[in-house]
Amino acid sequence: MGSPYTKLYPLEVNYAGKDLKLKESVQSWLMGSQNDPIAKTLAKNSHLTKTQLETLLIDVLSENIAGKQLKYDEKARLRLTKAKISRGAFNRTLKQAKENVTKSIYTVLLLGYLGIFESTTLDPYLEIANKLQEYIEAYKNIPNKSEELNEHLKIIEIVREELETSLKQLSNSSQDVV
């Protein structure tokens, strides 16, 4: 089963048993996702710290790259930091990240239950959610033919720029959601 988390940053799955290649591959993927302007804006406005997001991504994605089950001390060594991270510190950060994700989901469920999503103040967020889905779909459907590829890449660039602008405007706006 393919990972839904790799639509924009595909993972290589051919590094089983090669710790150095695994670490390089995971860290390269993490740096790519951290340098993505859309991911940066979304992360900045999320409930996850940079460390929590990195830890959660390692936990969820590293086994796909490794092609095998990894122990938490192995996952801790995959972090981008130069300092050695203990298994306990990795697990605490992972627990905090999972709690923040769960609380965010419950917040969305609560707002939906209370009818807040019917309010027009959330329309810009819903529009961006649709634009993000369009962006991901555009990446998934990249054509093989070079004449179609250039046009497709131009469309992806336009959608990316629109997303970046919209996300920055939304994150800078002082409009109240509720």
Percent of residues in beta strands?
under 5%
Total strands = 0
Topology as H/E string?
Answer: HHHHHHH
Task: Look at the structure and give the mean pLDDT.
Answer: 82
Distance between the termini: 39 Å
What is the overall silhouette? globular
Largest beta sheet, briefly?
A: none
Q: State the helix count.
A: 7
Poorly predicted regions: 1-6, 11-17
Task: Specify the helix fraction band.
Answer: 55-70%
Number of domains: 2
Task: Please identify the structural class as seen in this structure.
Answer: mainly alpha
For the CA atoms, what is the radius of gyration? 18 Å
What does this structure look like?
The protein has 178 residues and is mainly alpha-helical. It folds into 2 domains: 1-114, no CATH class; 119-178. Helix content is 67%, strand content 0%. It contains 7 helices and no strands. The chain has helices spanning 19-35, 37-44, 50-66, 72-76, 87-113, 123-140, 146-172. Helix 6 (123-140) packs antiparallel against helix 7 (146-172). The N and C termini lie far apart (39 Å).
Keywords for this structure?
mainly alpha, single chain, disordered N terminus, 2 domains, 178 residues
